[in-house]
Amino acid sequence: MPLTTSEIQALDSAHYMHPFTDHKALAEKGARVITRGEGVYIWDSEGNKILDGMSGLWCVNVGYGRKELVEAAVKQMEVLPYYNSFFQTTNVPAVQLADRIIKLAGERYSHVLFGSSGSESNDTIVRMVRHYWTTLGQPERSVIISRKNAYHGSTMCGASLGGMSGMHAQGGLPIPGIVHIEQPYHFGLAPDQDKDAFGIEAAGWLEQKILEVGADKVAAFIGEPVQGAGGVIIPPKTYWPEIQRICDKYGILLICDEVICGFGRLGAWFGSELMGAKPDLMTFAKGVTSGYIPLGGVVVGKRVAEVLIEKGGEFNHGYTYSGHPVACAVALANLDLIEKEGLVERVRDETGPHLAHCFAALAEHPLVAGAETFGMVAGLVLMKDKHQHLAFDEDLEVGMICRKHCFAHGLIMRAVGDRMIVAPPLAMTKEQIDEMVRLIRLCLDATLQELKE
Ligand code: PLP
């Protein structure tokens, strides 16, 4: 007999510790049990169909139920389910995937170091850039500059690179040698303030921090091309070129966290391509397998790889699952699908512009003070009085009210403070975008109604 929803919820509550969850609050209502997915929809154990506006957690880029990925996993498991790359050994899918990723990333890059997640990838770069500078005889160049409100993972290094104060408060973070500057959040600029000028100003905070720390102590700067979990913060177009200029000026390594932006989400294989940045290292995860199986890694630029390989000796770093053959086989099948269906181009030319158009129309809603999109990520800023630029009282948690209505209307949309965000599967059609936007409008109306009561 299959378990009933309440039996599953009881087991969940008794034994399953959820990531980023208030368990007391969860126990009161019971977890929603997700049982299956197809296309851009998921279903819960009560048979409710839900439009997944978040691609799981920014990852199910080709949508659910893709047989090609399942078949690739099964085929590889039958032949070689696992082997490591530690004993001067390698495996075919890992080599093929590294080659494929380098071709997609471009000629600035030469190697890929695999792990299983975005957090591991960001841990890897902390050790890698420090090893790089030590190999070059500059071990004092160890400080990494990141940004406030950024999310780079949950491990000690990932959470330290991240700039989430709530995460730092638990566990005495950041670890030494990681410092933060403000994010380039331009929403709320006065109408006569120039966005491009703000982009230059915000990048200038990096230079200020470099001078404060001492240029000879700074190893690298890390940032997402578009900050995702921080609330879909899309920088002005002047920001990244200026960041690049500053990194070049001081010889600092530039790292782009492409965990969300990579593999097509912004309408290019890597988001940094569109931003005018030329990172020395890129971290990735999520979209590389469309979340069907855990895989992440670091794309290593020639500048770093040549030093590590020619002079660095053994880099004492790696994971049991680095280059896992099944994960790499699934990634190859996923990249095949993305290419065959032209998803990157579709996001750039068709679905991305359509999403932008629809979100611009949502900005007319009385609750919405601003709407921003880039490729297949989008955010709405909710405000109490958009004409007076008056924010809601934080304690009201208006985002959570709206999220509750999304749940009730069969839509997954994420709340980050007062910002409501979506990152739908790249395989979503224009008609499905229309359906999602129709639901968002209903949820905004329901939120407005509740606030009036
Ligand atoms: N970096 C970014 C930009 C992310 O959004 C995330 C996860 O959401 C991570 C890193 C961490 O990835 P993972 O959860 O696979 O460890």
Commentary on this structure:
The chain is built from 16 helices and 15 strands. The protein has 453 residues and is of the alpha/beta class. The longest helix is centred in the last third of the chain and has 23 residues, at 430-452. The protein has two domains: 32-62 and 342-452, Aspartate Aminotransferase, domain 1 (Alpha-Beta Complex), CATH 3.90.1150.10; 69-340, Type I PLP-dependent aspartate aminotransferase-like (Major domain) (Aspartate Aminotransferase, domain 2, 3-Layer(aba) Sandwich). The protein has a seven-stranded mixed β-sheet with strand order 4-10-9-8-7-5-6, with helices on both faces. Strands 1-2-3-13 form a four-stranded mixed β-sheet. A four-stranded antiparallel β-sheet has the order 11-12-15-14, with helices on one face. α4 (67-79) packs antiparallel against α13, α5 (92-105) packs across α13 and α9 (195-213) packs parallel to α10.
How confident overall, as mean pLDDT?
96
Bound molecules: pyridoxal-5'-phosphate
CATH architecture of the largest domain: 3-Layer(aba) Sandwich
Instruction: Please report the first level of CATH classification, the CATH class of the largest domain.
Output: Alpha Beta
Q: Could you give a short account of the major beta sheet?
A: 7 strands, mixed
Helix and strand composition category: alpha/beta
Rg computed from alpha carbons, rounded to a whole number of angstroms:
22 Å
Number of strands: 15
- CATH topology of the largest domain, what is it called? Aspartate Aminotransferase, domain 2
How would you describe the shape?
A: globular
The structural domain count equals: 2
Strand order of the largest sheet: 4-10-9-8-7-5-6
**Helical segment tally?**
16
